[in-house]
Amino acid sequence: MSIEIRNVSKRFGAFQALDEINLDIRSGELVALLGPSGCGKTTLLRIIAGLETPDVGSIVFHGEDVSGHDVRDRNVGFVFQHYALFRHMTVFDNVAFGLRMKPKKERPSEAQIKDQVHELLGMVQLDWLADRYPEQLSGGQRQRIALARALAVEPKILLLDEPFGALDAKVRKELRRWLARLHEEINLTSVFVTHDQEEAMEVADRIVVMNKGVVEQIGSPGEVYEQPASDFVYHFLGDSNRLHLGEEGHILFRPHEVSLSREALPGHLPAEVRDIRPLGAITRITLRVEGQGEPLEAEVVKSHPSLLGLQRGARLYFQPSGRRG
Ligand SMILES: Nc1ncnc2c1ncn2[C@@H]1O[C@H](COP(=O)(O)OP(=O)(O)OP(=O)(O)O)[C@@H](O)[C@H]1O
């Protein structure tokens, strides 16, 4: 099911939380809303869900304007970061909840509910936990159960608000990959909110970069990273250095977009090594450059010749190889 967001604006008092947002999400897409805290991501998600009403604009699901539809009639599934499972219910009953709440004529029999719940628990690979209570689960298991509960009513649209935000880095990574796979298996259109660019890059088909209530750029992970539409997008999608060039202004470059040498080379600037951090396949070097306020960061492969025997305080010569600005 496709989602169109047409000219949506929302104010809270004098504060403009969303300013004329237009967005087309294709059927079957997995889209990330990415941006800093307070940029309006959650508000937009809540408007798509029907939990919040826009001041102006409309929401269209598959050609039908659903702006006037109540949240219950939109058939969307949700997973929110702190949207707790019902503590007094077992995992099974949590997942069955939405099915049991259906109007009588649509409600499946208890036998059908049992089959469906076990199928869903199988899909999130946690069928063996059916009789446990939420407090007996790990954070990652809880999130997967929350997802199974959201999927139980067979929504065509799934909305996820920082679904993995509270989990540790390794579990987050596993769940992200798992979500991307699951999304391929079942026919869903999903929108998820994150402030983590790596999460957006890794999972999403397209990324919507938001800032202060407006959309800065929409594109595939490759597009927004390689062809950022603004300095904001450039900064938000990865580490960056700013090199001041006096009257010529400044250039921006990524830590890996740099040529490093122990010898003075044409076009290269001298710098002092302040820190050397081996990070697996690459090594990060912090450089202090005369006349620059902020130190610069360079990343090279760990076998790079300039690293051999390199010590703090040594002199290196560098030249940005990619640049923006
Ligand atoms: N009900 C409300 N009343 C007043 N202001 C609100 C309300 N809901 C949100 N806001 C404000 O609107 C702005 C956007 O909030 P929103 O929750 O959409 O941001 P976000 O991008 O999801 O941020 P975060 O990543 O921190 O969750 C914020 O400045 C917030 O304080």
UniProtKB/TrEMBL annotation:
What UniProt keywords apply to this chain's record, in alphabetical order?
ATP-binding, Cell membrane, Membrane, Nucleotide-binding, Sulfate transport, Translocase, Transport
The cellular component terms of Gene Ontology attached to this UniProt record, alphabetical and capped at eight, are:
ATP-binding cassette (ABC) transporter complex
Cite the ABC transporter domain residue spans from the record: 3-237
One GO molecular-function annotation for this sequence?
ATP binding
This chain belongs to the protein called Sulfate transport system ATP-binding protein
Q: Which organism is it from?
A: Geopseudomonas guangdongensis
